[in-house]
Structure prediction request, 158 residues.
Amino acid sequence: MAAGDWAAVRNIYQEGIATENATVETQAPAWEHWDGVHRRDCRLVARDNGNTVVGWAALTPVSSREAYNGVAEVSVYVAEHARGNGIGKLLLSSLVEESEAAGIWTLQAMIFVENEASITLHSACGFRSVGTRERIGCLHGKWRDTLLMERRSGVIGA
Prediction:
């Protein structure tokens, strides 16, 4: 992912936000904010045959403490018109490889319990359920539960 991809990435993120099943965010941030909170080395886009961005994946550090440098939270978003075609699995599998190359030993994902497609995707890529976080976020006045999933590397920190 390059800075020039931001408009497409932001649009796809906004599509995910609109589902009200991907995040408690209500609007995609400005590039400067997004760029500042995500790791710079584990950012991917998927493109279709016309070279249009149809999905993205990135990692956010879970803590600024040195002991947690190898732990990151996963974000994976696919354009609405491209969902169901394996792009999410391609992105997440590639992100796992990139994360291990970057020294990440634990990936985590917080997924709304109703988001069965995302839970299935993460399970297929080696994530396991750690537990449910009840009433962890509020979206439009409704408290939401998330399933915390994680993937432990078999090669980093093993």
